[in-house]
Amino acid sequence: MDLHVSLVGRKDLAGQIYRQLRAAILDGRLRAGEAAPPTRELARRLAISRNTVAVAYDRLAAEGFLESRVGAGTFVRDAGFLERERPVASPLRPRPVWDEVRVWPARMSGITWDFRAGLPDVRLFPYESWRRIMAGRLRPSALGDPAAAGDPAGLADLREAIARHVGVSRSVRAAAADVVVTSGIQQALDLVVRVLLEPGDVVAVEDPGYPPVRMLLRAAGMRVRGVPVDAEGLRVDALPDGARAVYVTPSHQFPLGMPMSLPRRRALLEWARRRDVVIVEDDYDTEYRYGGRPIEPLQSLDDGGRVLYMGTFSKIMRPVVRIGFLVAPPSLHRAFRLARYVSSWHAELPAQAALARFIDEGLLARHIRRSRREYQARHERVAGLLGTLFEGRLEVVPSAAGLHLSATLPAGTDDAAVVRRALAEGVGLFALSEFAVEGPAVPGLVFGYGAVTLPEIAEGLRRVRRAVDGPPSAE
């Protein structure tokens, strides 16, 4: 253990060393069997006499805290020391909002058939190609000047690559200067809040919708209002009058799955124009579309510069690759760059450089094509089995994109209980009621197929069917 001992003043130096090492042992920072710093090294670091350190060590050894081993050094003894009592509780308390925030989703264990939404199949990712590129970015010659600060908006090469990628794959109108690299969707939304909103502002979100978004907004002091959705997406006629921003997932509503219709998109843009409102468009998985006409993003329909477009690579690549992006109009470039700077400066530079190369070599597009074919096969298998295994028990919400399908249960069904019974069967999935914001929760189930293989789907869904049927009769 690299223990850092600091001395205050020059009086009783041996006593200070004794007390600080003793505290480290009692606190568990130095554990039984670990080596104490050599007396010569500690004396050099503290610029004091080695004899002074030796006096402290002798006292600790006499009290049974340390023991010397010939030729090996000085070690903490395993003497069953009782931990010191914790200091008096701090008077510091978090803001009340943090009592309401919960980590989502809750941890599940014992899962064999994983139907949780939002998880890609990490086995499909081309690790060898990524490893080769990352290794090249970690060479000393590629790292550049260690004293050079990263651009808060992201590496120029990556921003250019993202602008090209979303222009081709998503029809987004963006130049490299419009792109801010983030660590994901939630950081992008956090930047929007920092730059454009004030505590107490009303932000409208889809109901049902993605829980971490509303938790982030509430933690930032926003007043969150849920807006119902129907078969055409967000109901513009139900938007609150005082809203300063609207967060939507128009290409693939989360969690229900329907796209926002073109008339509804135009109505939302017109509503935002009349009321001077910002639209935050979350396009989290649009690359995975399996049928129908391509969905044009709100950003490409917007001619007034009111749409902020967000995306992520976590669904395409793997969740641990925490790189996302925000596309903003020129009027906000400077503010977003500064907001990124004051929050966390910049994303990891080698990963940014590697992703730029991954896109430029065509590896991202190739991976999307390969994984899209696999996910489409899973989508069709899940949709087909939901129709046959659950006939009369579930109503599937039509969807032709993404990594999940949703289905509603009859009114009054306890979908959380269904999820618990499914977990007892080894199946992980989410209840639709988990995503409710304000309106009455519609019971249902959300079936993700990103993390479950094609051969596993049928048995997993048979077990969910048993969970839907409920516990066996007591007769």
Automatic annotation (TrEMBL):
InterPro entries: Aminotransferase_I/II_large, HTH_trans_reg/aminotransferase, PyrdxlP-dep_Trfase, PyrdxlP-dep_Trfase_major, Tscrpt_reg_HTH_GntR, WH-like_DNA-bd_sf, WH_DNA-bd_sf
Gene3D superfamilies linked to this entry: Type I PLP-dependent aspartate aminotransferase-like (Major domain), Winged helix-like DNA-binding domain superfamily/Winged helix DNA-binding domain
Source organism superkingdom: Bacteria
Residue span(s) of domain HTH gntR-type: 11-79
A single MF term (Gene Ontology): pyridoxal phosphate binding
Pfam families: Aminotran_1_2, GntR
Keywords: Aminotransferase, DNA-binding, Pyridoxal phosphate, Transcription, Transcription regulation, Transferase
Family membership noted in the UniProt record: In the C-terminal section; belongs to the class-I pyridoxal-phosphate-dependent aminotransferase family.
Name listed for the protein in its UniProt record: Aminotransferase class I/II-fold pyridoxal phosphate-dependent enzyme
Native species: Actinomadura physcomitrii
Lineage: Bacteria, Bacillati, Actinomycetota, Actinomycetes, Streptosporangiales
